[in-house]
TrEMBL record:
Keywords: Cell membrane, Disulfide bond, G-protein coupled receptor, Glycoprotein, Lipoprotein, Membrane, Palmitate, Receptor, Transducer, Transmembrane, Transmembrane helix. Belongs to the G-protein coupled receptor 1 family. This is Adenosine receptor A1. The lineage of its organism: Eukaryota, Metazoa, Chordata, Craniata, Vertebrata. Receptor for adenosine. The activity of this receptor is mediated by G proteins which inhibit adenylyl cyclase. It is found in: Cell membrane. The keyword Disulfide bond applies. It comes from the Eukaryota. The chain crosses the membrane at residues 29-51, 72-94, 131-153, 178-196.
């Protein structure tokens, strides 16, 4: 039932944004909260992955014992639980219900409004709580973590070059690719989220300022597009994610196998081989296995 309500709210707020659909206040608010939950989970996931990369570089010898499948699953669960709490705060009172009642001269009962994000979500919540607490700090934390990762990589490269004559350029190229990927991810994060939150700050602190709708739409598109860009960046620039994505596809959408496939054999993956494979597994099982698969791929690095 809860899933149905959240799904209906999601489509209501999306359609309302385009055609000005009139709906009950809390139905619109639920849809807006779903958007907040999903976008916040993306931010926390980026932060969690940054910490994972730091641990991989900082403690390479003990990484497998520290970052276990169980701890990875707990981290993923924690990100979603925290995102749910943050996103659902407006449903528990921090919203624009009082403004809506005043504008419609209704003291109680249902309020039918033209569903828009800013109509139901308080800008104080978006700026002071969401942006200043749950967007800017993760951004600065990621910046600090990635700078430390670059520093550690540089030290490791120096040691590698000075301590061995065995193809240092190959090692340098691999580490440089990872460093560039991290920089690209951080840049995309900033470019995707800062414009929208900057507009929210303008809305809150400059009530008389006009915001061109085209700029607002571009900012919204960038913020939501970040979630679509991240898998592409990780899949094409970080080998362990690419390997894990192919593994998930081959195991759950292509061929049925017994136990875990050898990750080293995934380079032989092809669409034609998948078509010839007679067996398939249940797609529903994939969701519960993703944390374990990612952890397993990480342990192979």
């Amino acid at each position: 039932m809860q899933s149905r309500i959240m799904t209906e709210g999601w489509f209501i707020v999306k359609k309302a944004s385009l055609i000005g659909l009139k709906t009950e206040f809390y139905s619109c608010l639920m849809g807006a909260c779903v958007v907040l939950i999903l976008t916040q989970s993306s931010i926390l996931a980026l932060l969690a992955i940054a910490v994972d990369r730091y641990l991989r570089v900082k403690i390479p010898t003990s990484y497998r014992s520290v970052v276990t499948a169980r701890r990875a699953a707990m981290a993923i669960t924690g990100c979603w639980v925290l995102s749910f709490i943050i996103g659902m705060v407006p449903m528990f009172g921090w919203n624009n219900i009082n403004n809506a009642r005043e504008s419609h001269n209704i003291s109680n009962g249902e309020i039918i409004i033209t569903c828009q994000f800013e109509t139901v979500i308080s800008m104080e919540y978006m700026v002071y709580f969401n942006f200043f607490v749950w967007v800017l700090p993760p951004l600065f934390l990621m910046l600090i973590v990635y700078l430390e990762v670059f520093n550690l990589i540089q030290k490791q490269l120096s040691k590698k070059v000075s301590s061995t004559s065995k193809d240092p350029q190959k090692y340098y190229g691999k580490e440089l690719k990872i460093a560039k990927s991290l920089a690209l991810i951080l840049l995309l994060f900033a470019l995707s989220w800062l414009p929208l939150h900057t507009l929210n700050c303008i809305t809150l602190f400059c009530r008389t300022c006009e915001k061109p709708m085209i700029i607002t739409y571009i900012a919204i598109f960038l913020s939501h597009g970040n979630s679509a860009m991240n898998p592409i960046v990780y899949a094409f620039r970080i080998e362990k994610f690419q390997t894990t994505f192919l593994y998930i596809w081959k195991k759950y959408f292509c061929c049925k196998t017994d136990g875990f496939l050898s990750l080293s054999k995934l380079s032989c993956f092809s669409v034609s081989a998948c078509i010839r494979c007679p067996g398939r597994t249940k797609i529903q099982d994939m969701t519960n296995m993703i944390p374990l698969l990612i952890a397993k791929a990480s342990s192979k690095q």
